[in-house]
Structure formats: C-alpha cells, structure tokens
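Supplementary Methods, section 5.1.

A reviewer requested that the exact input to the structure prediction be made available. We therefore reproduce it here, unchanged from the version used in the analyses.
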Amino acid sequence: MVTTKSTDRMPLMEKEEITFPPFEMAHLFGPNEKYGDWRDELASEGFYVVKGAVSREKGLEYRDRALTWQENFGLGFKRGDVSTYKNECLPVHVKGGMVNGYAVGHEDWVWDLRCERGIIEAFAKIWGTDELVTSFDGATIMLPHRTDVPDAGKWEHTDQSPSRRGFYCVQGIANLNDCGPEDGGLMVLRGSSRLFEEFFDVHGRTGFKTWGPVDWCNFSIEHQQWFFERGCVWEKVCAGPGDLILWDSRTVHYNCTPKGDRDRVCTYICMAPARLMTEKDKADRKHAFANYLGSTHVPFDCHFRHKHEAKVRADTGKPCPLDTGIPQRPRKSSPTVLKLAGVEPY
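The structure derived from this sequence is encoded token-by-token as follows.
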C-alpha cells in the first residue's frame, strides 16, 4: 500500500493501491441517502440534467460568444462555413473540439457562465452550501462534418481513482446548443457509479491506466462487460441550451463527436465547498487565478498548470503563436468571481 497526498502525480499504470485520507462527505449519494428530489436520480443513475439552469435564450447567447471567441483568432474559421471546419482554421484542441489552452478558462464568457445563479444553485443543492469554489476548466466547440479528426478511440473513463471509497465529486457541463441523439456530447454508462466500489473490490485497484492527476481511470471493453452484466447501458445525454448536465465522477463516461448537422458548444464546470480547501489549495488557486492558468476538475484538490506553455498545432507541428496565455477578453473581478475563484473568503 502506498500512502500519498492527493496532490501527488501518478504513473501511466496504477501499480499499487493508494491510501487516501478519509473524505468527510464520502457518504453523499450512498445507498442510504434519500433526498426526495432530482438528487435521487443522480445517485441511482449516475447523472442528471438540470433543465433551464440558464434560460434557453441566454444559453444561445453564450454559444454565440463562444463562436465569436473562436472566430476572433483570425485563423479563418467562420460559423456556417463548413470549409473552415479544419485544424488550420481553429485553435489547438483535442478529441474533436476540447480546448484547454489559450487561457480559455478565464475568458469573460466562461466566468459569466460560472456566475449564473442557476449553475451555483445546482451545485449548492448537491453540497448543502452555496459557499463554493469552482474549477478553472476549459470549453468544447465540436463542429459537424469534419474530415480531419483522427479516431482516438472512445476514451471510456471515470474521473475518480479506483482507490477512493465513496462519493468524491460531481462534475458539470453547461450545455449551450440543442444536443440530441445524433449531436456531439456526453455518453454515460447508466448506473455505473453505484457499482464503482464493487467493481474494484472484484477486480482489484491496481493495473488500470491513468495519467498525471490521480483521479482518472480508463475502462477496457472487458471491464465494461462486467457493468453490462449488471444492467448498465450506454446512453447519450441529450440537453438543450442552458441546461446543466451533472454526473458523479464515479460514472464511466466519454465524449462523442457530432454525427448530425449541429455544433456542440459547452463549458466544463465543477463546484464544491470552499471549506474543503487546504491552505496549499488556496495559495495554488490564487496563483492560477492571477496567471490565467487552468485546472483539473476537483475544485478543492485541483491540479493546476504551473506555467503557461503554448499548445502545439497539428497543422504546423509548432507551438501556436496565438496561445499567449492571456485571454482575449479577461474576466472581471467581481465579488462572486473572487469568491468562486477562492481568492476571497466568504
């Protein structure tokens, strides 16, 4: 057994089980917890769509701001012109449209979404407090009819370590366009979160692929079969503009690219109680906020990029000169922003 702080890095293959400090809120969404509202579905199915967390009209306005942000790079992308839906016209991205560079997590439109009352209220209901801090995560703009996106596989995974017991985090997607069965979006293995611990009790907690942050675990086709035999099924999560998609980090999931005619536009938002931060967490967050750095998803235990490094372009093989580490339109430091950032106390 290896004992580690959750800020340590992991090798590409988890070779030894990790011992984590007990998590005081691990009981949430457990088999003995009943809420009498949508949290019961989140607990049993592993995901839930909060309809109208932001109004449909405002959701589409945010989509417009996201597409304007992408057009403003001046690389040639124009919404509605399919001939510009290619790497040389777009900022650097992965998985068909996930953007983590360019300080996108600190653009004004991304922060405005985090500050929406309906977004905050949904996470407040999960945790039982509205004194929250947020992840500094990125955004996705997946365009339809692309022919230059390599097949990188489905990437079925959870965002929680096999060595954690019980609940740890709920993640979120602020959805900004109509997202139906044929559109790009989130695929979830319905019901897998409630079987998470049992799976690793049976299969052990070592030998699973992971990456830098501890809280990520890959699931093979053989692993998924175990879940299928217990009634779990893959489901495409459908949502409208302004809806907030929530999922337990123990839910096996992946992103799919558009098959139809619509673009997928969204941001990733995860919030948790500010009181769960350590003094190191607070110091790291202040540094990241001041320097426009991004983070992983767990707000009270984020892994932050320690310095800016320009993303390498697929079309040139060289760092993108437009990825300066400074947002096009930096967020304004309102009281809500500073508290969600963890820079100022509640």
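The first helix runs from residue 38 to 45. These observations are discussed further in the main text.
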